[in-house]
Specification:
With about 350 residues, the chain is α/β, with parallel strands linked by helices. The protein has 2 domains: about 240 residues, Dihydropteroate synthase-like (TIM Barrel, Alpha-Beta Barrel), CATH 3.20.20; about 100 residues, Sulfite Reductase Hemoprotein, domain 1 (2-Layer Sandwich), CATH 3.30.413.10. The strands form 3 sheets. Strands 8-7-6-5-4-3-10-9 form an 8-stranded parallel β-sheet. Helix 3 links the parallel strand 5 and strand 6. It is elongated and about 75 Å long. The two termini are about 30 Å apart.
């Protein structure tokens, strides 16, 4: 059962409550380079990203946010450290959300200025605590960035906002250590009602980062913890979105889209399965369906037909022959080279007829 949380709005995206779990990413371009940043965000939009975060290291970057906001549809969040003036400028430029830790931006007067501006524009604030950036006194207390230390740091920042009667908050307590990350989120989930942004920080390359994120984020989501996610990978930001969406699909938490399952291949394989799957993924990319469907792509004439029949739509091939299954029944047979064409044609029909 999913944890009950307060709901906030990041632009048009609802986070928390009964809202679908959203997928986030962060741009890797220089925010001051407006054309490149807009281009990257549009690629993220196309990949299915719901919220995009942008680094704001200086005032030039902050003043670029308005033009970027005009050029994209997705909700955007400014990522700011220490300088409250950058936060105020980001709000003026029309961002939909902000990641800033109030305890790091100076005097109570400065914090209040940011909070009042965010409240006026209905802009939520994400408190983002990482194992690599804990306060010195908390590190002295715990000796190392433990899950309890992450939780205490986050709650300290929450109290600052609550004392100013601001509660449009979401929280993240990220660590590069998967088990520590899981435990930190479990602790914060017990102690607050705010929505949680899940992630394994600095997870690594596409291979290891996908594994760590799938275990960390997936474990918590399976326990009902988490309202929005980001997979942090070294590489193309679009890959972060694709992995995030696949994590949600694997748990039945993505409401639309196509989940492709394919066999690993063995000595019985009689077709070029890797190229077949790659071509199918490319052809199916971007097709939106009214509900999630499972598509099986299998190359074995022994187990393939039975496994393909268990998917919503499936293809199996070998020995020059292709077979298409729908709803558990063999629909038709055809030449092997027609496998992807037949699959795409049937899915396009599914889009309009189901």
């Amino acid at each position: 059962m999913r944890r009950e949380t307060r709901q906030i709005s990041v632009g048009t995206v609802k986070v928390g409550g009964s809202a679908p779990i959203s997928v986030q990413s962060m741009t890797k371009t220089d925010t001051r380079d407006i054309p490149s940043t807009v281009e990257e965000i549009k690629r993220l939009e196309y990949a299915g990203c719901d919220i995009v975060r942008l680094a704001v290291p200086d005032m030039e970057a902050a003043k670029s946010l308005g033009e970027i906001r005009k050029g994209v549809k997705v909700s955007i969040v400014s990522d700011i450290h220490f300088d409250y003036r950058l936060a105020l400028e980001a709000i003026r430029q029309g961002v939909d959300g902000m990641r800033i830790n109030p305890g790091n931006i100076g005097s109570k007067q400065r914090i209040k200025a940011v909070v009042d501006a965010a409240r006026e524009k209905n802009i939520p604030i994400r408190i983002g605590v990482n194992s690599g950036s804990l306060e010195k006194d908390i590190l002295r207390k715990y000796g190392t960035p433990t899950a309890e230390a992450l939780c205490e740091s986050a709650l300290r920042h929450v109290m600052i906002l609550e004392d100013l009667d601001f509660r449009d908050i979401k929280i993240s307590v990220k660590s590069t250590d998967v088990m520590k990350m899981i435990e930190a989120y479990r602790l914060i989930a017990e102690r607050t009602e705010y929505p949680l942004h899940l992630g394994v920080t600095e997870a690594g390359t596409i291979k290891m980062g996908t594994i760590k994120s799938s275990i960390g984020i997936g474990t918590l989501l399976a326990e009902g913890i988490g309202d929005t996610i980001r997979v942090s990978l070294t590489g193309d930001s679009v890959e972060e979105v694709q992995v995030g969406i696949d994590i949600l699909r694997s748990l039945g938490l993505r409401r639309n889209g196509i989940e492709i399952i394919s066999c690993p291949g063995c000595g019985r394989l009689e077709i070029d399965l890797m190229n077949l799957v790659s071509e199918a993924e490319s052809r199916l990319d971007g097709i939106e369906l009214p509900r999630p469907i499972k598509v099986a792509i299998l190359g074995c004439v022994v187990n393939g037909p039975g496994e393909a029949a268990e998917a919503d739509i499936g293809i199996a091939g070998g020995r020059g022959k292709g077979m298409l299954y729908k709803g558990g029944k063999l629909l038709r047979s055809f030449k092997e080279e027609e496998l992807v064409d037949q699959l795409v044609e049937e899915i396009e029909k599914f889009e309009f007829n189901h």
